[in-house]
């Protein structure tokens, strides 16, 4: 048990923080700790979790991406237009188009980073502006409301009324999110390519000397994030029932904060899918709880900033120092 | 120049290189060098930095392609050149100086890393990886928890992990690049045991090092390179350190005791009962004007921690520090610098110098107050100050504006010393000043230290190489587990006496 806690210190700390916040919120509001609210939270966090697991892969490979949220907007818009041309389409064609556009935009980032040796934060700040600028220029900021029916129709996979009268439902975004989370987990922990990504992020020079294909690593990491951005973008359009060009603008920093909160390291080689999901959930729970408690929305950002600082301080390997019983003599044999 | 010893009736070499020529941008790195390794032998490849050792390894392992005309005979096959893939497949492995490990990944993944290589994605078999890792470690007679992330282990164990990884690929020939550079004596001894076992099992091991004393007694033969040319191949038996140094540098060094009696000089530093529980305890000593005090002991003996507390970077819990009779209490190293203490850190590369910055900027960074005029930095005064120290210490540089990273280890160390001398200190603390510095350049550094002492500076010389403190200090303190356990005067004892105490 001790070694499990030790090797997953970040996830453990996040669970503790989530538990504490949940207890506080359930004492201060009536509606927080209801099954209905819990499932609402899951439904509304799905898009961010899809983005987050994509971004996690890039962080593990030692990169960073600022452009994925606007790339998701581009994917939404292109998909909506193409679906109009082909006369409706369906979930399969929609996901293929959105995912494909996302992969292309991600690959462009990888191309800039690998070919011209631009550091990823600079390259993606540039593409963030390019993607968003092109989107606003060609759309003139006009939203699309007449989306195909299949895209705007809520798909409820499971629903049930609970004993307390609240209504729980699991919707399509949750299913898509679950598939993305499991796929990313299998990809980064169970495949050789995923382990090469960790190694590349951990020690790029060491990986290179072993013959790990550096170009492939960049394209795979940014391509995976692009895929998740495309899928997440389509799911967001479905959830919001509209395509608004600047709807996701600014989302990149929220997701980045959540992923870093989940234990991923800026600099590479470190981060888990579980930590990443918990990071997003912690932020959503806090936001939701504050909402229910009637706190002014203007105070949200401030409180969330404080929570990110507190959680990161707690999880950044300081856990061992704070809890001496978890210390253990090792090394220096 | 090449004086080949006869190799009559020796077994057929596992690796044999002939006519290796290699140049970079018109500058010749290897000139007509030959190199042989016999199956299962332990072979030392000796030479100063820049002598061509690393170039040679990179040719054997396929990182570099030699100029046409080279013949590489390995294990019954002839190659015009190697590639990393063919070298690995043929059982040639390298343990690089920086180890090239992955600290966030588990020990098992590090050792069995080649199972996840290849461009076609496959599923990872963690069980299989663990088996490989456990088996490789068992072969070395070491037990580590293979499920822990590598970062949980200290450098010595990481070294073992790197060796274990090299053995996974059925290695026949293992190159070890500076394997003992960051190990203590007992860790080095353990490494040498491992090498002995490998050699007994038929694996040939080539040591690349400029600290050869420790590997000499387990080696069979020695190849010495100088300036890209072969000096010769010698049997290791009967070879002594000083002879190797001569062969490597082409110069003779006389080892004369520096130790003098300076007990008449005024005391600069007096430390009484200085303690910081867990790091060092009950430390008392004095250093006089013009005196060099050596402090030796194994890694982890508390030497560096003691030095840091004299430099204001670590607060002692109790005890007093007096500088020229006045009690001082430093709350930061800025106080210590102002009071006349200078500290040359152990880790020059990361703490001492800012590698990408210019020589001039590095040299003046601790004494900016001296080169301002009217509150602004004066370029003229900076150039003057830098030029003065460069001449004074005989540092060979291109231009003042060149990056420090362009200099050799020895010259970098001189820049680091000059940086502190520019602060006009009373007490200079040198922590492991020769780590990563060539034998030839070491002599130059000790010349500077002697000159500084003669000019009246009080110097504390910290080193885990006993000969360095024995030959160059006036008195020697031996620290173990945070305490001073022995005090030696080199004039009244032998090198063996101190070594026996330290390595006991």
UniProtKB/TrEMBL annotation, chain A:
Record protein name field: ABC transporter permease
- TM segment ranges: 12-29, 41-61, 68-86, 92-111, 118-138, 170-189, 210-235, 255-283, 290-314
Alphabetically sorted, this entry's keywords are: Cell inner membrane, Cell membrane, Membrane, Transmembrane, Transmembrane helix, Transport
Q: Which GO terms describe its molecular function?
A: transmembrane transporter activity
The highest taxon in the source lineage is Bacteria
The family database entries (CDD domains) matched by this protein are listed as: TM_PBP1_transp_AraH_like
One GO cellular component this record assigns the protein to is: plasma membrane
Pfam families attached here? BPD_transp_2 (PF02653)
UniProtKB/TrEMBL annotation, chain B:
Q: Does the keyword Repeat apply?
A: yes
Record-annotated ABC transporter domain positions: 15-252, 257-504
Name the domain of life this protein comes from.
Bacteria
- Transmembrane ranges, per UniProt, are none
Q: Does the keyword Cell membrane apply?
A: yes
Keywords in alphabetical order, please.
Answer: ATP-binding, Cell membrane, Membrane, Nucleotide-binding, Repeat, Sugar transport, Translocase, Transport
A Gene Ontology molecular function term of the record:
ATP hydrolysis activity
- Pfam families per record: ABC_tran (PF00005)
Q: Which family does it belong to?
A: Belongs to the ABC transporter superfamily.
Q: What's the protein name?
A: Sugar ABC transporter ATP-binding protein
What organism is listed for this UniProt entry?
Phyllobacterium salinisoli
